[in-house]
Design goal:
By secondary structure, the chain is of the alpha+beta class. The protein has a single domain, classed as 2-Layer Sandwich (HIT family, subunit A), CATH 3.30.428. It is 27% helix and 18% strand. It is built from three helices and five strands. Strands 1-2-3-5-4 form a five-stranded antiparallel beta sheet, with helices on one face. Strand 1 and strand 2 form a beta hairpin. The protein binds zinc ion (ZN). The site of zinc ion (ZN) has 5 residues, from helix 1.
Amino acid sequence: MACIFCKIIAKEIPAEILFENDSAIAILDVNPIHYGHALVIPKNHHKDFLEVPENELPGMMHAVHVVARAIVKSFDLRGFNFFSNNGTVAGQSVFHFHIHITPRYPDDNIRFVLQLKRYEGEEMKDVAAKIRASIQE
Ligand SMILES: [Zn+2]
């Protein structure tokens, strides 16, 4: 069991634990974007969001909600982000799913650099149809 998050969940290595429920644990990120940057991690090992079973998602989101509210209160924030990197191409570095919650401040200069595209002609309809066809109930 080489996974660092599994070791934290097993209490084999220390972490600043903020919150726990049946499905998830929340800890402080050791390399924060801002102080208070937290990670919500499922207690079971799943490499990314797509591998998390549906029955663990409510507990995950409950933990995100509780911890985000507490971070906002603790630092009197006007905003925060929560996000998840899934796959190397998306910047994932620990392959045990986790959701980041980080405080935001005015003029903190933290941003994705976006080059927004525009759909042309029927492209938007075609893209939506492709995704809808891939949704399996
Ligand atoms: Zn793990």
